[in-house]
Amino acid sequence: MSLWNFGYQGYDSAEEGLREALCTLGNGYFATRGAAEESAADGVHYPGTYVAGGYNRMQTEVAGRTIENEDLVNLPNWLCLSFRPAGGDWFNADAVEFLTYEQTLELRAGLLRRRMRFRDRDGRETTLTARRLVHMESPHLAAIEWVLQPENWSGQVTLRSALDGRVTNAGVPRYHALSGDHLVPVISEPLGDDGMYLVAETRQSHLRVAQAARTRLFRTEGSAAAERRSVREIGYIGQDIEVDVSAGEPLTVEKLVSLHTSRDRAISEPVLAAVETLAEVERFAALAAGQARAWSHLWDRCDIVLEGDERAQQILRLHVFHLLQTLSPHTVDLDVGVPARGLHGEAYRGHVFWDELFVLPYLNTCLPEVTVALLRYRYRRLGSARRMAREAGFAGAMFPWQSGSDGREESQVVHLNPESGRWLPDYTHLQRHVNAAIAYNVWRYYQVTDDREFLSLYGAEMLVEIARFWASVVTWNPQRERYEIRGIMGPDEFHDAYPDRDEPGLDNNAYTNVLVAWVLQRALMALDRVGANRRRELSESLNLDARERVTWDEISRNLFVPFHDGIPSQFEGYERLAEFDWAGYRARYGDIHRLDRLLEAEGDSVNRYQASKQADVLMLFYLFSHTELEQLFDQLGYELHDDMIGRTVDYYLQRTSNGSTLSHVVHSWVLARRDRGRSWALLKEALESDVADVQGGTTPEGIHLGAMAGTLDLVQRAQTGLDMHDVLHLDPCLPEELVGLGMRLRYRGHWVDLGVVHERMTLSAPDGWSGPKRVVIRGHTYEFSAGQRLEVPCHSERGGHRPAQM
Ligand code: BGC
Question: Could you please report the per-residue DSSP string of 516-533?
């Protein structure tokens, strides 16, 4: 097994959607699913291309009301390349007999390769090797190389190379009732002898997209002569190229493509840019060399070497690959957030949720400049968040649960339960905890990087406005003498209301309340850290006075946290809900990840049961170290006992269906120090989430970026006890199954290399290191300087430092 390749043997039309999502190629600017070049959207194949942040809004009549959705738009398909022998059919994977078929994603080189030998219905045998890239160095370029070799026949073939703008958003069957016809064709024209370009525009957002393509043919001795004819339809342009081929002689077809949009910087307009970008490149091989170079630079920074489990290593690299294809150094120039499903499909319409909470920790340690770009996506939408807070009767800024182009709330108001066929009200926008997650991300980024400029110019303002929002949401309960947060939802999406209450929302979600207490304190700390001048400026421009700060402090010490049997309740009254019959439902349905849908289809409601979709209370143990959580509980006037942690973990693990792929990540994390074997097993499950499509059909609609990044973070922080908050702490604790780990970390502007095996760990600083002088390993402080290699035995006794995970 190559640890740098991920692939498949044999063609399987039933698995094509999954393969397409997992073989997506992208560069942070745009991405294209791994659909076969010769395919079109037909129920088996779905060639989708998406530009980061390329949204459009449309209205639809559904269930008796007009609803509006904003979608990440499926852009013209640039892949189109096919061939047919004279008198034969267009090549169609579903109609030929494959003698061999192999599809491989080459992670190190950033290439997708298909190598196949097939026999058509007339007995012609052909070998075709297709390679493809979406360029990581020049983000506006992509290319396909076909090497076509007739094995037992000679004659004329017609090749069809095209740009197809007649596409719609049709990648998610659940959304078929919703409008998906986002593109208006603008123009398509030939470009010289061997080229063409196509322009389309989105209907409402007026995003203009231009693609230019050139298709050239080569034989071993040089260019191949061919007859070309233009094929045109509205929204489509192609070229039919006729050429002679001979048995045993390869014909190379190179299709080079450029893509620009009207949102690009440093261009006049997209067509001119697309034509010029295309003119700069000659051959596929040169692009492939640049691609390998760009990827090798990224791998240098971002790879995680894991010894002892080849499958885990391979999938971990696949996760790095997809993360970097969605969020890359090119993101720095864009105004985009973290799309929950990558740029790999149309599920959740390309929206941005709280999932960055799982993505940014890893980026903080290898591409912190990308974290800043993502945090600034939120910062730019502060105005919209302020407006939303105001309209809802609150102060400060209320960020939406689902965000798209301009930061308004994009959560749907009704959603379809495919099990019952019913459209149901959707209250997920009540997950106000996304606001705490954004504040958390701001602070963690600042702690890891010590980027005071960011804190001063952007972060502090975000923290202040989020703190203000929460301070206006809480209500005082005089009986309890505590502040409360009522009428919201926690991360567990199964519970959106009390079974006996008419209006949606739950009271005192423990995760939210504890996190808010932490956030309010960070807002105060941020104001301290930015210094007197900036504090004065912020106070003046945000109209912030000392009284408000005193109130935040007061709330942060007196928020109510519900408990039952000595453990935090997911929300007030959770323990009074009925126990769910897990065994019975598993026996009846098999897969009960989405038991909310099953129950609704039965006329019941998951709101009646102690059954959660995903980690909720346990998120607290994921976000905070033991020490931090102890302090936080103390700040709130509660006690956190070791015994309570264990019981909390056990209680919720038994009551969670893992209907979100984020859940395994959190559960593996909370068990990392308590039960290494079980934690490793859960990490392995999290690693399989997308590659094995464990939710039975969700991955073809887009990868789960949060879960993918979460596995990287898990290996990076949970296994090494890495804590970069104010000092660099390490406390490795490898599971039995692993032999060793290696990674590079960016800490406060410097790189360090970390290696861990069971008995020892090494930390080396390159020459020229001028980072922090001290590191704390297993509770002992070590001096650390340029060019030094620190080797520390791992079987030493535990020091005072409590591990970052429990
Ligand atoms: C999860 C959310 C998540 C969203 C997008 C949902 O299924 O419950 O926590 O933010 O997917 O990934």
Answer: HHHHHHHHHHHHHHTHHH
Distance 375 CA to ligand 1 centre (A): 19
> In terms of Cα–Cα distance, which of 570, 718, 563 is closest to 641?
563
Question: 3-class DSSP state for residue 465?
Answer: helix
Tell me which DSSP letter residue 434 carries: H
Pocket around ligand 1 at a 6 A CB cut-off: 340, 348, 353-355, 491, 493, 613-614, 660, 662, 706
Residue 801 pLDDT level (bands cut at 50, 70, 90): very low
CB environment 182-191: b (16+ within 10 A), e (fewer) = bbebbebeeb
Beta carbons of 661 and 794 less than 8 angstroms apart:
no
**315: CA distance to ligand 1 center in Å?**
21
Pocket test for ligand 1, best of 360, 493, 708 (most atoms within 8 A of CB): 493
Choose which residue among 172, 326, 355 to substitute to test ligand 1 binding: the one with the highest number of ligand atoms within 8 A of its C-beta.
355
Cβ burial 334-352 (10 Å sphere, 16+ → b, else e): bebbbbbbbbbbbbbbbbb
Residue located nearest, by CA, to atom 5 of ligand 1:
340
Report d(CA 664, CA 680) in Å as an integer: 10
Contact 34, 17 (CB under 8 A): no
Q: List the 780-783 sheet strands across, edge first.
A: 728-730, 774-777, 780-783
Residue 310: predicted pLDDT: 97
> Residue whose CA is closest, atom 12 of ligand 1?
340
For 566-600, the DSSP string reads TEE-SSTTGGGSBPP-HHHHHHHHS--TTHHHHHH
pLDDT in tens, 672-708: 888 889 999 999 999 999 999 998 899 999 999 999 9
The per-residue pLDDT for 641 is 86
pLDDT tens column, 33-90: 999 999 999 999 999 999 999 999 999 998 788 999 999 999 999 999 999 999 999 9
Collapsed DSSP state (helix, strand, coil) of residue 500: coil
Q: How far apart are CA 685 and CA 664, in angstroms?
A: 7
Span from the CA of 414 to the centroid of ligand 1 (angstroms): 16
Angle at which helices 705-713 and 676-691 cross, to 10°:
150
Q: How far is the CA of 660 from the centre of ligand 1 (A)?
A: 6
**Residues 329, 333, 334, 337, CA torsion sign:** positive
Calculate mean pLDDT across residues 561-566. Answer: 97
In this structure, what token pair is assigned to residue 195? 């080229």
pLDDT of residue 403 exceeding 70, the answer is yes
Task: State which ligand 1 atom lies nearest to the alpha carbon of 355.
Answer: 10
Pull the structure tokens for residue 504. Answer: 């949606």
Asked whether the beta carbons of 447 and 368 are under 8 A apart, the reply is no
Q: Give the residue-averaged pLDDT of 630-654.
A: 94
Contacts of 762 (CB under 8 A, 6+ apart): 753, 754, 755, 789, 790, 791, 792
- What does R_g of the chain's alpha carbons equal in angstroms? 27
Q: What percent of the chain has pLDDT over 90?
A: 90
Given ligand 1 and candidates 174, 346, 348, 353, which is best to mutate, with the most ligand atoms within 8 Å of its CB? Answer: 353
636, amino acid identity: L
455: CA distance to ligand 1 center in Å? 28
The per-residue pLDDT for 795 is: 60
pLDDT for 806 beyond 80: no
CA-proximal residue: ligand 1, atom 6 (nearest): 660
Query: Residue 492 CA: which ligand 1 atom is closest?
Result: 8
* Token code pair at residue 425: 């009200």
By annotation, the residues acting in catalysis are 493
Compute the distance between CA of residue 705 and CA of residue 26 in angstroms, rounded to an integer. Answer: 14
Q: What is the pLDDT of residues 124-170, one digit of tens each?
A: 999 999 999 999 999 999 999 999 999 999 999 999 999 999 999 99
